[in-house]
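User: Here's a structure from my thesis project, written as structure tokens. My advisor, Dr. K., wants to see whether a designed sequence matches the one we expressed. Can you design one independently, without my sequence as a hint?
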């Protein structure tokens, strides 16, 4: 369990734009003959891979992987639009939509991704790319509430859902993730709106919900420090991502995870090949490699997020698995009120402006 929790230091050493295993033992494989190239440029989220898998891929195919990380979809997008050359990128669902619309990624040759049958059940037909024409999911998760089980009964969460975040008895005891869309999410679902609503009246009501929440609840707006806050039981409730919840629950057995009945955001990040890739054959090999059970298991153990491979999910969440008893590892699938975020620059700008007003007024 600790392996993925201590990955940060190792990845800081990893994520420079340089070969990841210089001096590695070479195989007899001829990548030039097979793929037409012997280098691959990968752009991924930080702390999102077991670094041993990079070396494993390099040794198998006798190639060099240049691996670099980003902190947000917008950072990745800016780099690609600005002309940075990568072969494989890993945007989130709504950003995949944008990349498709703007021609930043190319169609995949699914005949070269023979492990696609390993995909998890909840990832076989995502809204943003239902036929996997442009993308193959890499990790998945949800947004939910981490709660202190010694102070909050599950039955109360089941009764109130997102509205527990505006219950005055928990004033001063909640953490909210400082991100515009993820903070409008509880308000939108509490009020019965879609998380993708562009209706001005809906958005205004959500804004007022958040303003009232700030006045009455004195919430803490945080980012990654939510992990330590909840591990140390400093707050009672926190809105966070399922993978972060896994991290918290692994270190504090008093913490639980709940996905509200009104619905939530379910998300996935996906592997795509850029339109400018000069190493397309090797890029397909990388995507196929990441769908291998052993590779996917190592990645999931290292990162803590839900695997893209169904057999890995079953194994790690099973009775003898590393995440047994941690329900955050297996976000619900097929719930009618759960939604993916969709790409809408106007909506994102509007929510960003209103979220800043909530925080700073």
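Assistant: Designed independently from the structure alone:
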């Amino acid at each position: 369990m600790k392996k993925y929790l201590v990955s940060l230091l190792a990845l800081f050493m990893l994520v420079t734009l340089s070969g990841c295993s210089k001096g590695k033992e070479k195989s007899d494989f001829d990548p030039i003959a097979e793929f037409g190239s012997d280098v691959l440029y990968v752009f991924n989220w930080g702390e999102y891979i077991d670094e041993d898998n990079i070396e494993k891929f390099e040794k198998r195919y006798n190639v060099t992987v240049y691996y670099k990380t980003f902190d947000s979809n917008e950072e990745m997008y800016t780099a690609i639009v600005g002309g940075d050359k990568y072969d494989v990128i890993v945007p989130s669902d709504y950003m995949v939509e944008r990349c498709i619309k703007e021609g930043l990624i190319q169609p995949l040759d699914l005949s070269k991704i023979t492990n696609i049958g390993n995909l998890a059940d909840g990832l076989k037909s995502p809204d943003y790319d239902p036929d996997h024409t442009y993308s193959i999911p890499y990790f998945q998760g949800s947004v939910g509430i981490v709660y202190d089980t010694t102070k909050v009964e599950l039955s109360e969460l089941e009764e109130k859902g997102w509205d527990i975040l505006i219950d005055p008895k928990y004033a001063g005891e909640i953490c909210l993730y400082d991100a515009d869309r993820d903070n409008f999410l509880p308000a939108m679902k509490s009020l019965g709106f879609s998380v993708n609503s562009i209706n001005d009246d809906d958005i205004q009501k959500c804004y007022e919900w958040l303003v009232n929440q700030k006045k009455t609840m004195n919430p803490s707006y945080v980012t990654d420090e939510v992990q330590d806050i909840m591990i140390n039981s400093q707050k009672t409730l926190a809105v966070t991502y399922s993978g972060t919840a896994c991290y918290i629950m692994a270190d504090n057995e008093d913490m639980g995870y709940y996905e509200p009945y009104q619905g939530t955001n379910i998300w996935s990040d996906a592997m795509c090949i850029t339109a400018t890739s000069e190493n397309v054959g090797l890029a397909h090999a990388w995507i196929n490699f990441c769908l291998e059970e052993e590779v996917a298991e190592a990645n999931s153990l290292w990162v803590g997020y839900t695997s893209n491979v169904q057999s890995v999910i079953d194994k790690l969440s099973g009775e003898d698995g590393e995440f047994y008893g941690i329900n955050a590892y297996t976000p619900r699938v097929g719930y009618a009120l759960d939604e993916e975020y969709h790409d809408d620059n106007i909506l994102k700008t509007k929510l960003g402006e209103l979220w800043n007003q909530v925080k700073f007024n």
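When you compare it with your expressed construct, this may help: DSSP finds 15 helices and ten strands in the chain.
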